[in-house]
Amino acid sequence: MRTSLKYFAGCLLALATPAVGEGATAPVSQAAAPQLALMGTIPIYWGEADGLQEIVRGEAHEHWARTQLERDFALVPLDFLSEEALADQQFLLLAQPRALAPEENVALDAWVRDGGKLLLFVDPMMTGHSRFGIGDRRRPMDVSLLSPILSHWGLELQFDEAQDGGMRMLDHFAVPLPARLPGTFVPADDRFECVVSGGGILAHCAFEAGEVLALADAAMLDLEGPYDGAAAGLHMLTSHLFGPFGDEGGSGHSEQGNSGEHHAHSPDSHRHGAHSAGVDPP
Predict the structure, then answer these.
(1) What is the C-alpha separation between 163 and 142, in angstroms, rounded?
(2) Torsion angle in degrees (nearest 10) through CA of 175, 178, 180, 185
(3) Of the candidates 77, 110, 119, 268, which lies 20 to 30 Å from 60 by C-alpha distance?
(4) Which of 189, 187, 182 minimizes the C-alpha distance to 168?
(5) What is the per-residue pLDDT for 164?
């Protein structure tokens, strides 16, 4: 089944990639752009489609974030997180992923600890519109099912059912991030890999050579967006964890990867150090 999915994904990739010609606008420097692996039930890459034929005919509802991400990355859609699939990737974005199989949890954890960088959107109560009804497999997951890997990383995702359901703006290093009915990350008392900020909605974790930046909300990636602040917020998060890009940053693993340069310049780098020393996180 996985072989079939990979085969169809390859065919769709060839069909869905727009040709560059007169009047067409190509993503900037795609040949030299760093790769970003992408997986999740939010249909960022393929768009929201009723089936294969809608994708082939170009009738799928395109997700605005694909264009946004392709300004900095060459996207690599994945359908399964195996050791093989992750081997050549340095960056990964998981957008409200389905429940991971046990072997996927093992592969993802090993990949992160070996130097991978993960941007994770994990929402305990999705609020975005979908053309598909509750229970339809084509609909983004309404409730996150990632407890095993979060627990392994020393995080618990909680949800306050009494909170206001309106859109709110979080402040992350002076950049507003839109959120609606977010969850809250609670770190384990005896674990020091993660620093929680933004009122508990963001968690930045350092695991050996790798990093995880997790958001307990996915309203920023609603298909009907982008909402105010969503595009700028997504760019800030990817640049903060994966960047910088363009002339100032390389795309090779050897230039950044495990070099430690990212930690040295990251706004959170001093926080990881303070937390490890036993200082309460901000």
Answers:
(1) 17
(2) -30
(3) 119
(4) 182
(5) 87
Identify the DSSP state of 8: H
Instruction: Give whole-number Cα distances, 145 to 12, 123, 136, 148, in Å.
Output: 27, 9, 16, 8
CA–CA separation, 36 and 73 (whole Å)? 6
- Taking only the tens place, the pLDDT of each residue in 37-86 is 999 989 898 765 445 554 454 544 577 999 999 999 999 999 999 999 99
Q: What is the pLDDT of residues 242-282, one digit of tens each?
A: 986 544 443 333 333 333 333 333 334 333 333 333 323 33
Classify domain 30-245+262-276 by CATH number: 3.40.50
Q: What is the pLDDT of residues 118-164, one digit of tens each?
A: 999 999 976 666 545 566 565 566 678 899 999 999 999 999 999 98
C-alpha to C-alpha distance for 36 and 70, rounded to whole angstroms: 9
Nearest to 93 by CA among 220, 259, 191, 256: 220
Tokens 């009907």 -> residue: 224
Q: What does the angle CA 177 – CA 179 – CA 184 come to, to the nearest 5 degrees?
A: 105
Cut 0.70: pTM above it: yes
Q: Give the residue ranges of DSSP H helices in the chain.
A: 2-16, 52-56, 64-69, 83-86, 102-113, 147-152, 230-242, 261-265, 269-276
Residue ranges per domain, the chain? 30-245+262-276
